[in-house]
Amino acid sequence: MTSHYDLIVLGTGGVGSAALYHAARRGLRCLGIDRFPPAHDRGSSHGESRLIRLSYFEHSNYVPMLKRSYELWDQLDSTLLRRSGVVYFGPAGSQIIAGVLKSATEHQLEVEAAAENSLPQFSPPSGFTALREADAGWLPVEQCVLAHLEQATAAGAEHRWGESVVDWQAVPSGVEVSTENGKYSAAAMVVAGGAWSSRLLQALELPLTVYRKHLHWFRCDDHRYQSGFFFDLPHGQFYGFPTTQGRLKVAEHSGGEVVSDPFAASRAPDAADAQRIEAFVHDHLSGLVGERVDHQTCFYTRTPDEHFILDRYPGTKNVSFAAGLSGHGFKFVPVLGEALVDLATGRSPAFDCGFLTLSRFGRQGQVLDAFQD
Questions:
Q1: Whether residues 86 and 178 fall in one domain
Q2: Is residue 297 very low, low, confident or very high in pLDDT (cuts 50, 70, 90)?
Q3: Do 230 and 286 sit in the same domain of this protein?
Q4: Helix boundaries (H) for the chain
Q5: Contact 306, 280 (CB under 8 A)
């Protein structure tokens, strides 16, 4: 017998957990399905922390979404968003510095130049610009996912995990979903498959590439590392977090190893990546002398232009999806979840998300001009 709902969410990681929360809060009878347990470490929403910032160098179009995201994080749980600030380092005119200044100017954000002698714990290359955003910070990623799921279930949502989706199809009454354990139907659906988006949305032939990325923690007793940081270096982009529990987390945003099957991907350390991180720490974090104490892996699911895809499924009015968050999506989780439920239930999102639609890609994933200024 098929169980029927108002809305089904496929994938309950960062974005899917938020969609389930927003659907339940609106009084919808909703179901979330995931093959892994809550706040698992097999996707993209784990690893203790994620940066959040308003001065968005990736593109200033994201800033209205970020302002809404800040509101929603605080509504969910005011203790989650830790406003510790972030410092950006890069050559004048580099992607990060130019992008931060553009977003700050267009949206009247508080970003200031940081004097070199005010940041002795960092060693940027000579001539680099340093910019500080005080309202930036970080999010405890697993706690965020659990908060969305716990509040969703408290509002009446059902959550089935350990259950893999086999197939889904649009039908006159809405959608039907087949899993290893049974069948479900709903009037509407949200797909938030992360690294598994290409399989769940197979007919769309989305231009997505999955990369394995590495996260590193170093012992750190230097309490000057109280803000996040982002370096735009000639050989790569590197970032890190405030020291917590005597450890500092550091990772590379650029690069990564292409993964054909996320389920089977190795989670072992990579020697070349470790060498790059160690060289970055040695050259640019002058206060960090501790050894590496932990390592994890996660996935970036990148689009060709490294911007999100957020849209309704072509040919439907009741199926929405988010994919290709390209390694910078977690900070947007609550606003993406809200928008996905809007799109699946016939509402217009609270912000303009037209710049993220699938239509910006031509055949074979050719990027059109949606992000040209």
A1: no
A2: very high
A3: yes
A4: 14-25, 63-76, 95-107, 141-154, 197-200, 271-284, 333-344
A5: no
- Which string of DSSP letters, residue by residue, matches 159-219? EEES--EEEEEEETTEEEEEESS-EEEEEEEEE--GGGHHHHTGGG----EEEEEEEEEEE
pLDDT grade, residue 117 (50/70/90)? confident
Domain count across the chain: 2
How far from 366 is each of 121, 128, 198, 252, CA to CA, in Å?
A: 43, 34, 17, 26
Q: What is the structure's pLDDT at 366?
A: 54
Taking the CB of residue 60, how many other CB atoms lie within 10 A of it?
Answer: 20
Q: Pick from 251, 269, 297: which residue ends a domain?
A: 297
Structural domain of residue 173, as residue ranges?
3-45+142-207+305-365
Helical (H) or strand (E) element with 32: strand 30-34
Band (180; pLDDT cuts 50, 70, 90): very high
- Give the CATH number for residue 284: 3.30.9.10
Q: How many CA atoms lie within 13 A of 232 on its CB side?
A: 21
User: What is the residue whose two structure tokens read 């938020």?
Assistant: 18
- Would residue 370 count as lying in a domain? no
pTM of the complete model: 0.96
Q: Chain-wide mean pLDDT for the chain?
A: 95
